[in-house]
């Protein structure tokens, strides 16, 4: 297994202001994610899973502590640097797929590359490759409403990996899917992990943990346990 760190959090804290009240979302979380592994974040609703994913993605800024993502110290990075990292190197998968309804699947998948200034023809070819990797060849010109929820989530994963992104963050990627389709999505994420992509996901579904190399449990903003699963590579 690769030992290089894709994510290193040291004593990371984050609060949100609710009116005048400060709500702590993460309290001194320290966590390492090795490159090419899958880590599952678990814990009750409100325990801080989404907040941690948003900090890693650079969608929110760290209040205190150190957070390094793909070798960059994001706790000291400016907005422009974070936006560039997000656009070029990190993919985000949402529970509700978050595809643009009036764009075709391939147009959705190539969006991050176009946003990064890559020419449309090249972006289109890379998007086709990403769609093939998640089993969507032949559905490039369908609109999101013309495919199943599982296929929409595959397209969302293709958008997250397009252009050879090495870090995929997924916030409850199977939360809107039936259990069979959820398993298909976890198989795809595990397959990407086996190809060297680092995956960090949040989940409420215990069945998903069988695919993870490591499970990090949050409770009330604190990391309360870290479980390594040596059997992650031995699924049938
Ligand atoms: N933008 C925000 N503004 C105010 N409070 C927030 C914001 N985002 C998160 N919080 C608060 O931070 C805490 C952690 O929330 P977070 O969404 O990270 O939990 P979660 O574990 O992902 O929950 P769920 O499983 O329901 O998605 C909660 O108390 C939540 O209300």
TrEMBL record:
Keywords: ATP-binding, Nucleotide-binding, Transport. The keyword Transport applies. The keyword Kinase does not apply. InterPro entries: AAA+_ATPase, ABC_transporter-like_ATP-bd, ABC_transporter-like_CS, ABC_transpr_LolD-like, MacB-like_ATP-bd, P-loop_NTPase. Pfam families: ABC_tran. SUPFAM superfamilies: P-loop containing nucleoside triphosphate hydrolases. SMART domains: AAA (SM00382). Residues 7-236 form the ABC transporter domain. One of its GO terms (molecular function) is ATP binding. This is ABC transporter ATP-binding protein.
């Amino acid at each position: 297994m690769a030992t290089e760190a894709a994510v290193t959090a040291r004593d990371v804290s984050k609060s949100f202001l609710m009116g005048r009240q400060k709500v702590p979302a993460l309290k001194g979380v320290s966590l390492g994610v090795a490159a090419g592994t899958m880590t599952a974040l678990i814990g009750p609703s409100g325990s801080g899973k989404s907040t941690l994913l948003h900090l890693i993605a650079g969608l929110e800024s760290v209040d205190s502590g150190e957070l390094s993502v793909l070798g960059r110290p994001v706790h000291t990075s400016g907005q422009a640097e974070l936006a560039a990292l997000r656009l070029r190197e990190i993919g985000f998968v949402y529970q509700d797929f978050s595809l643009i309804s009036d764009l075709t699947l391939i147009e959705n998948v190539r969006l991050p590359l176009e946003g990064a200034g890559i020419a449309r023809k090249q972006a289109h070819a890379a998007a086709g490759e990403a769609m093939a990797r998640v089993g969507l060849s032949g559905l490039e010109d369908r609109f999101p409403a013309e495919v199943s929820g599982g296929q929409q989530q595959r397209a969302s994963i293709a958008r997250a990996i397009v252009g050879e992104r090495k870090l995929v963050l997924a916030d409850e990627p199977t939360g809107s899917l039936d259990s069979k389709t959820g398993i298909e999505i976890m198989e795809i994420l595990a397959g990407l992990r086996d190809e060297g992509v680092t995956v960090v996901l949040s989940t409420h579904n215990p069945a998903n943990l069988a695919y993870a190399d490591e499970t990090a449990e949050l409770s009330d903003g604190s990391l309360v346990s870290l479980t390594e699963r040596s059997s992650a590579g031995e699924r049938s």
